[in-house]
Amino acid sequence: MSGFSLHLSCFSKYLNVTPDDLLTKKDLENFKNELFEILKPLKEAQTLQQQKWLRSKDVRKLLNISAGTLQNMRIAGTISHNKVGKIFFYKAEDIDKMLSGAEKKARKRSHKACEVADIQCTFSSKGT
Q1: Which of 15, 79, 113, 117 could form a disulfide with 73 if both were Cys (CB 3.0 to 4.6 A apart)?
Q2: What pTM does this model have?
């Protein structure tokens, strides 16, 4: 180890590198763990979207709604579902369609607001 520090000290005056500037295995391990924590929600969302049927907790997570709101949506017929025993299941395809419909409605409302305000609207999103 002393040979390494001697070797490093020879080059540090030319490279302006201190031992504190070097990456250690622990630094890389910490970085890996932090990166996995950041990517974990993305992977979960991707897995949920690949499933054919979703449970209530999955739908609530995707829509960012409470259990009560989801129940109200079922009662109002806003969201289709199947019940097996005490568990509600929702088709992932239906949830995607519902989200797409909400996005289109929001775009229409924005266009209408532009017309009322008599201004030129430009939207740059997929599907327009």
Answers
A1: 79
A2: 0.44
Residue 28 Cα distances to 3, 25, 32, 33, angstroms: 23, 5, 6, 9
The partner residues of 33 in beta bridges, in order of sequence, read: none
User: Coil, strand or helix: which one is 118?
Assistant: coil
H-run or E-run covering 7:
helix 2-15
Residue 46 near residue 40, CB atoms below 8 Å? no
Distance (Å) of CA 57 to CA 49, 102, 107: 13, 21, 28
Given a cut of 70, is residue 7 above it in pLDDT? no
Question: H or E segment at 51?
Answer: none
